[in-house]
Description:
Layout: H1 2-48, E1 81-86, E2 99-108, E3 114-117, H2 118-121, E4 125-128, H3 134-139, E5 148-153, E6 172-181
Antiparallel strand pairs: 1-5, 2-3, 2-4, 2-6, 5-6
Amino acid sequence: MKRVTSFILALLIFASAAASAVFVIQAINQEQDDLSTATSTIEEQANQQPVEEIQPVNENALKGKALINFTPSTERLTAVKIEDLTVGSGAEITSAAQTVTAHYTGARVVDGIVFESSKDSGNTFTSPLNNLIKGWQTGMIGMKSGGVRRLTIPAAQAYGDDASTGRPSGDLVFDIELVDVK
Length: 182
């Protein structure tokens, strides 16, 4: 009888251990399933939400800043004022029919605040001079490649005085760096 009791007791201990092992295995499998489901859900959400590209801020941007070495004025201009900041040594603009490639920075004379600069994008522009505002057409004649010229232009030879056009209005000042002439 002792043997039977010992055998039953051993059987109960073994059955208990086996049941515990099954319970532990089921718990581990459930955790793995939960983890797999959570990972899938996170991956699905990541794929559904658009990723916004973060644009670097150009801390050196000129737009919205004061034009360097310029004193604003409320006195209205009647003619284009030409000032060579750097005299170029390359090809010279001899007529408005030529095509120019340049960098420019434009500001309002009244406050000196830059409204646009090609340097902010790093791209020069190329255009026949006679397609540009009258102040540029008269003010750039005689300028040489490699030069930097400041043109202070009356509204009548720029975009006028009407602020509702979306263009800068009033008297304007441009620093122009001539890259090429053709």
